[in-house]
Amino acid sequence: MDCVVTGGNVKVLAKAILSLSRIGDELYVEPQDDGLALRSVNSSRSAYGCFLFAPLFFTRYTIPNGQDFRCKMAIKSVQAVFRSLASLEKTVEKCHIELDKKKNRLTFTLHCKHGLLKTHNLSFQDSESLQAVFDKESYANVFRAQPRLLADTVVHFPSSLDEVTMSVNDDRMWFRNHVEDEAELSKAMQTELCLASDEFDHFAVRAHNSVTFCLKELRGLLVFAESANLPISIYFDEPGSPVVLSVTDSVLEGNFVLATLSDDSHQRKDNTRRAQTPPPPPPDDFMNDDIDSYLIAMDTSMAPGPSSAGPPTPPLAKSTYSKQPVAAYHRTRIHSEEEEEEKEETDDSDRPPNKKFCSLFFGSVLPPSSQMSTQPVTNQEVLASDSEDDTQAE
Amino acid sequence: MKFRGKIIDVSCLNHFTRVVTTISKLTKLCVLRLTPDHLFFVLSGKVANGGVSMWCELSQANFFDEYQMEGVSSEDNEICLEVTPENLSRALKTVQNAKSVKVKLTKKHCPCLTIAAELPTLSSISRVVTHDVPVNVIPRRLWHEFKEPSMPDFDVSIYLPPLKTMKSVVDRMKNLSNFLVIEANLNGQMNLKIETDLVSVTTHFKDLGNPPWGEDASQEDSASQSRDPETMAEARVDIRRLQQFLMGQQVNPSKAMCNIVCQRVVHLILLHEDVSLQYFIPAVA
């Protein structure tokens, strides 16, 4: 891999990395035919961010032929390369990113004014490809807004606030802070903000729903969108299925996928579930969040990682990971089994209290590279199921 | 009990916000007393707050364009609420550019002071943000705890030097000691001192002037008139309390004064045309 970024695009790249750093601790780098993909996921796998920079974003973009290279590295060390973001634009003329195969380092060279060269050799780990499964096009509610509008909205919420609830009807959108505990209600300040539809560039509502998601990542994306002055598109459906936030222009695309709380509709689900499935486990059990179980699904898939063996040969990958596509694209028995085991082992008190975020679903596979693209995988099921779906599928 | 106030003027909103923010720096919890003419932020000197007490008085007409209130009864035409000033401050800070801000006593999931702001937009419909700040309504039998503190029988009263100067001095002293001695005389001199086993530091201020207290303070006057102008009256206080007072300071006062009751209390007064803030720091042995 060998690419060169010049001028204002250096800052765009740096801001993208900064906003990904609000999600997770690691940056996944994957040079693809259709551009350089930078991704990050948080530790509970409830938030995922991805930027794809098209080859045209770069003044030079070459990737090795027929050889898959992808890696992950500590996002902090990449941020260190683009330290002092404010002055970056003035001082850095060119940024050269190159893979040094011999040393096994990813080299960032900043060509600054006065012929100053700054070279950072970053170590990396081989990694699986990270890909959240989502299909924003199928979502019922679609909005597009200037970053200023959303920035002016989130400013009303304290930085200590974790989650906001976003609700819509035909001509309004509300943001409200999410209070987890009834007891907290009498102490915590409640904030509600109402936006009229004509403040948005695009406002299409098919389902009057409310979703609750983490504010931190939205703030992260806003950092990028405000600096690049790109409108943010918001896609969401129902509680439990993720919110997708996107920015696009001709040479880049960014998607942030954030899990939403599913507890709003617990009561309803609980009831329907009782009616439909003969042996219902105790409702408490059912209501446990399923983050852990999905984590297991992911972990097992990564365990025989190819880091030491180098890129695996296709047949090997196929046999080792044969379960994966199934697990990822249809919620199958595998999950529920793991889930059940997990539940037996885990004491309720160990779990994060009341956080019923549905974890995101990842196709964490090593598929033929043609199949892997950062483009949202269309025609696939929306991720982040909950246990209800799992059991009903049986 | 009813309360509803509306602020339209930006400078009033800004000023009110700064007052509330100042209060929020001084205490986590305080009492907001609403009367037909005034708002009071009160902290009564309980051991829990380190014996510190506070009295802040605002004239409603100077802040609110509309102000309606109906107290508990016609004889006791007041409302007494326990609030978290930080919440109020945070709510007000985010609506600084509002076209109008309403402050209302509301009954939501619990009693709340609701701050509703109409924000300017490019569209035809205004953007509305509401902050519900939970409050506790204080029953009448406890009101006696939140009356205006009486002026202490001070030994020396003196104008304070610029608060910023004082702050930088106190901030540095804070690194050396937990206690500070504040002393002043009737000759316009004030000293800030710390003494530890290792170091003694004193900062001297002079020509500060002593405020003339009129007839109403005659009793003290006679005492202080007989006082040798050079003799210092001193009180040793917890340096954090003083620092807190200087740090939170956002109301640029036209007058800042300090009354010292020897070994008992330091009484700080800030006056700004329509706002007065009194802060009492008890002396420690």
UniProtKB/TrEMBL annotation, chain A:
<feature type="region of interest" description="Disordered">
    <location>
        <begin position="262"/>
        <end position="394"/>
    </location>
</feature>
<dbReference type="GO" id="GO:0030896">
    <property type="term" value="C:checkpoint clamp complex"/>
</dbReference>
<feature type="compositionally biased region" description="Polar residues">
    <location>
        <begin position="367"/>
        <end position="382"/>
    </location>
</feature>
<keyword id="KW-0539">Nucleus</keyword>
<protein>
    <recommendedName>
        <fullName>Cell cycle checkpoint control protein</fullName>
    </recommendedName>
</protein>
<feature type="compositionally biased region" description="Acidic residues">
    <location>
        <begin position="337"/>
        <end position="348"/>
    </location>
</feature>
<dbReference type="InterPro" id="IPR046938">
    <property type="entry name" value="DNA_clamp_sf"/>
</dbReference>
<keyword id="KW-0540">Nuclease</keyword>
<dbReference type="Pfam" id="PF04139">
    <property type="entry name" value="Rad9"/>
</dbReference>
<dbReference type="GO" id="GO:0071479">
    <property type="term" value="P:cellular response to ionizing radiation"/>
</dbReference>
<keyword id="KW-0378">Hydrolase</keyword>
<comment type="function">
    <text>Component of the 9-1-1 cell-cycle checkpoint response complex that plays a major role in DNA repair. The 9-1-1 complex is recruited to DNA lesion upon damage by the RAD17-replication factor C (RFC) clamp loader complex. Acts then as a sliding clamp platform on DNA for several proteins involved in long-patch base excision repair (LP-BER).</text>
</comment>
<comment type="similarity">
    <text>Belongs to the rad9 family.</text>
</comment>
<dbReference type="GO" id="GO:0006281">
    <property type="term" value="P:DNA repair"/>
</dbReference>
<keyword id="KW-0269">Exonuclease</keyword>
<dbReference type="InterPro" id="IPR026584">
    <property type="entry name" value="Rad9"/>
</dbReference>
<keyword id="KW-0597">Phosphoprotein</keyword>
<feature type="compositionally biased region" description="Basic and acidic residues">
    <location>
        <begin position="263"/>
        <end position="273"/>
    </location>
</feature>
<dbReference type="InterPro" id="IPR007268">
    <property type="entry name" value="Rad9/Ddc1"/>
</dbReference>
<dbReference type="GO" id="GO:0031573">
    <property type="term" value="P:mitotic intra-S DNA damage checkpoint signaling"/>
</dbReference>
<dbReference type="GO" id="GO:0000076">
    <property type="term" value="P:DNA replication checkpoint signaling"/>
</dbReference>
<keyword id="KW-0227">DNA damage</keyword>
From TrEMBL, chain B:
<keyword id="KW-0227">DNA damage</keyword>
<keyword id="KW-0539">Nucleus</keyword>
<dbReference type="InterPro" id="IPR007150">
    <property type="entry name" value="HUS1/Mec3"/>
</dbReference>
<comment type="function">
    <text>Component of the 9-1-1 cell-cycle checkpoint response complex that plays a major role in DNA repair. The 9-1-1 complex is recruited to DNA lesion upon damage by the RAD17-replication factor C (RFC) clamp loader complex. Acts then as a sliding clamp platform on DNA for several proteins involved in long-patch base excision repair (LP-BER).</text>
</comment>
<keyword id="KW-0963">Cytoplasm</keyword>
<dbReference type="GO" id="GO:0005730">
    <property type="term" value="C:nucleolus"/>
</dbReference>
<dbReference type="GO" id="GO:0033314">
    <property type="term" value="P:mitotic DNA replication checkpoint signaling"/>
</dbReference>
<dbReference type="GO" id="GO:0006289">
    <property type="term" value="P:nucleotide-excision repair"/>
</dbReference>
<dbReference type="GO" id="GO:0030896">
    <property type="term" value="C:checkpoint clamp complex"/>
</dbReference>
<dbReference type="GO" id="GO:0005829">
    <property type="term" value="C:cytosol"/>
</dbReference>
<dbReference type="GO" id="GO:0000724">
    <property type="term" value="P:double-strand break repair via homologous recombination"/>
</dbReference>
<dbReference type="GO" id="GO:0031573">
    <property type="term" value="P:mitotic intra-S DNA damage checkpoint signaling"/>
</dbReference>
<dbReference type="Pfam" id="PF04005">
    <property type="entry name" value="Hus1"/>
</dbReference>
<comment type="similarity">
    <text>Belongs to the HUS1 family.</text>
</comment>
<dbReference type="GO" id="GO:0035861">
    <property type="term" value="C:site of double-strand break"/>
</dbReference>
<feature type="region of interest" description="Disordered">
    <location>
        <begin position="210"/>
        <end position="232"/>
    </location>
</feature>
<protein>
    <recommendedName>
        <fullName>Checkpoint protein</fullName>
    </recommendedName>
</protein>
<dbReference type="GO" id="GO:0044778">
    <property type="term" value="P:meiotic DNA integrity checkpoint signaling"/>
</dbReference>
<dbReference type="InterPro" id="IPR046938">
    <property type="entry name" value="DNA_clamp_sf"/>
</dbReference>
<dbReference type="GO" id="GO:0000723">
    <property type="term" value="P:telomere maintenance"/>
</dbReference>
<dbReference type="GO" id="GO:0009314">
    <property type="term" value="P:response to radiation"/>
</dbReference>
<comment type="subunit">
    <text>Component of the toroidal 9-1-1 (RAD9-RAD1-HUS1) complex, composed of RAD9A, RAD1 and HUS1. The 9-1-1 complex associates with LIG1, POLB, FEN1, RAD17, HDAC1, RPA1 and RPA2. The 9-1-1 complex associates with the RAD17-RFC complex. HUS1 interacts with POLB, HDAC1, FEN1, PCNA and RAD9B. HUS1 does not interact with RAD17. Interacts with DNAJC7.</text>
</comment>
